[in-house]
Amino acid sequence: MNPEDIKRYIRLFHEREIPKVIEREVKPSFAEGRTTAIVGPRRSGKTYLLYSLIGEDREKYVYLNFENPLLFGITGRDFPKILDAYYDLYPENVGEDIAFLLDEIQNVPGWEIGVRYLTDEGFKVAVTGSSSRLLSKEIATQLRGRSLTYTLLPLSFREFLRFKGTWIERRDLYGREIHRIKKLLDEYLRFGGFPEVVLLKDKIRILEEYLSVMITKDIIERHSIRNVALIESVIRLLLSSYAKYTSYSSIHGFLKSEFGTSKTTVLEYLKALGDSFFVFFLPRYARSEKESQRAPKKVYLVDTGFSLFSRKDVAKDMENAVFLELMRLKHYFNPLLDVYYYGGSGEKEVDFVLVESGRVVELIQVTQDLSESKDREVSALVEAGRRLGCKNLTVVTLDEEGDVEADWGKVKVVPLWKFLLEITPSAPLSALPSPEPF
Ligand SMILES: Nc1ncnc2c1ncn2[C@@H]1O[C@H](COP(=O)(O)OP(=O)(O)O)[C@@H](O)[C@H]1O
Ligand SMILES: [Mg+2]
How far apart are CA 395 and CA 174, in angstroms? Predict the structure, then answer.
């Protein structure tokens, strides 16, 4: 580590203008004696959220992006030297309240040691990471439970509208605005919610670049994967299986003749893919954890824009968008929520089972067009509802609305745009602040 490089880096940041940050639904803050951690996929807006923590007195905020080559080679044990370099630059700030913003911290070997040092010294510390290992219990233990973690996903549909400069008053939901919202929903399903993709024109090119960088940096390099052809095949398989069932043995079965690969390797690669937030694996609802683990999983992509590189399908994009919204509900608003799918082997399927503290609180079925499949979709929901003792039953459709009376309570039918706008219980639309003109 070269202290002059660090000084140069710190000063450069203080001379630079901070870009305008559009408000997000995740609102991290510093918590005394704890490390604030923002974790999520590459390009979801973590760095911008870090910027939003910067207050008036810029020089008291030390921003270090560990993806910058100037900072390569730094380890957690070098952090006292970083502090010295900072004090050399700003001796007047010795003893002041300083905040450290440490971006993409997973690139620093032994980062926990450094972070613990800074927190113990009484500094404010916020870190970001694009590896879900930063979420794991292991890390919580290393920071002695003294962390506060926020998970950030690509934009929700509400945020998407804000980024588009469209603001929707609650009353508008029932007015002529609906046509505009539906058109914007088409775009949201097609290109997804990565902030830059939403803001800029060249959407497909940006998405292509995101996917390729995610694969090379967050998957292949980070996990030292040697069989690049194999991981690329696994990725292609997962892309083509979005909103479908998969299991590591079926993927293994598919690839073993071509690659002669072992189940262990496939499992390892799937873990790497999940760790990078490229995909999520939704487990089946079952009586025991073990049973749930053994059952096939459903695959969802971190962004519906990525399905452009597979066989894109509106019905699957809708299901994927609902899944991501449920993940936001869990990570942003209700940590007690767990999400599963129901049925599969012989039993009728329900897309999502929402469980809170062990109790089934809602069943959600997603279908593009209810008119053709009403009986099937409704009867699957009602049957599952009866078995699981849950009367809160919802069908999300592209365009239909109303209630369906069934012998086990009422089934709500909600169009997707409304579901995506209204789902957040703690943030009713009317209470959200207006967006800044952009
Ligand atoms: N809150 C925001 N307001 C405005 N633009 C944003 C915001 N969040 C992300 N962006 C845009 O998306 C890009 C990627 O965001 P960034 O914070 O760099 O993602 P990450 O750090 O997660 O990789 C930014 O360069 C910016 O163009
Ligand atoms: Mg970043």
Answer: 19
